[in-house]
Amino acid sequence: MSSSIQLPRDVYGTEEHQMLRDTVLEFYKTEVEPNREEWEENTACSREVWLKAGELGLLGLTLDPKYGGSGLDFSYSAVAIETFAKTGADSPGISMHSDIVIPYIEKHGSEAIKDKYLPKMCSGEWIGSLGMTEPSTGSDVQAIRTTAVDMGDHYLINGSKTFITIGYTSDFTLTACKTEHGISLIIIDANLEGFTKGKPFKKLGLKTSDTCELFFDNVKVPKENLIGEEGKGFIYMMQELPRERLTIAIQAIGAVRGGLELTTAYTQERTAFKQPICAFQNTQFKLAEVATQLEVNTAFVDKCTELLARKELTPELASMAKYATTEMQGKMLDECLQLFGGYGYMWEYPIARLVADARVSRIYGGTNEIMKLMIARAIFSDYFKEMKAKRRAMKMAQK
Ligand SMILES: Cc1cc2nc3c(=O)[nH]c(=O)nc-3n(C[C@H](O)[C@H](O)[C@H](O)COP(=O)(O)OP(=O)(O)OC[C@H]3O[C@@H](n4cnc5c(N)ncnc54)[C@H](O)[C@@H]3O)c2cc1C
To answer: Which atom of ligand 1 is found nearest the CA of 139?
Structure first.
């Protein structure tokens, strides 16, 4: 694809960004693609790939070097996430571990916890997952039922989580639990007695990263595994969700970029009625639409990335980014697949996998309906505040 139709993205254009892009592409070629089919059959990737990612410095890109990270700004994470997504190589679940779990621990964990977990997470020796969703509740996080009862020197944990990305492979799960004073985040090590895991689910897409259920039956967790303050877990989640949602938006951008490149190449090779498919105006118009949607969405996501780096990304802007890009991803990749004809439906064709993987992006990290709810709340925030004040005044008057 000609670069003249791509927006200049100066902030990602340094030599270091390019080196990172090359490293991710090489990692994909040598470590992921040769093993992909085997991982798909096992519905989980190998542990070796994590060690390799650690060796190449791909884990903990933004983490402080004193904990084993690279200390880079978020634009580097964005480059890695987008490049992984373009190839489909994020299937080992690296961004969950590196861009979601690590920041929770870095920002809210005690020094002892950071020293214990972060260096091993950067080397790929320990893999971390995030457990919020439960069988009975996903969108309504405050309705979780998993409990952590304070027993003096430890918490006693009971409950279950579901749909946990890399839950099966992970060595610990950063888990949202109900404690006496609200929701708290607690690290639960996988080797603790009473912690069991379900078999990885068979999924529509993302077949090389596992997703499973986790069960906690009287699991004794040391008190020092609490992240931040007890009862503040919901606030921490609300603080971290914009980054998680932006990560999903960046993945959507990468996936569509990958789809556009694959389709541009394919339509020049494939012929019908004695012409390459790209000679049909329909093909040209479809890909013009994909390229336009991609660039327009990229501009918004790049702006959000900049805001995140300045710690100014609001929940509603992150929700807009996730909502807009993932809807675009679904529609545009479907258009791309159509141009492959029957081959597009075959699993061995990367476009089929990009389409299958795309479906979940409108669901996880908060569904797109929840994204719209967040945006609408911001639109009507003054109105809701006014209504609340009126109700409070009426109650006071009745007393
Ligand atoms: C592959 C995969 C990986 C995942 N990884 C993780 C993970 O690592 N960690 C984790 O904690 N979770 C994970 N999840 C869970 C995911 O975040 C939830 O599935 C998602 O938040 C939706 O929750 P739910 O499935 O319970 O759907 P529900 O909350 O039951 O929603 C069902 C439907 O109702 C709609 N709905 C709900 N509330 C409202 C409302 N107020 N207004 C309008 N519509 C509404 C939803 O939008 C949806 O369409 C993963 C899910 C999948 C599929």
So the answer is: 29
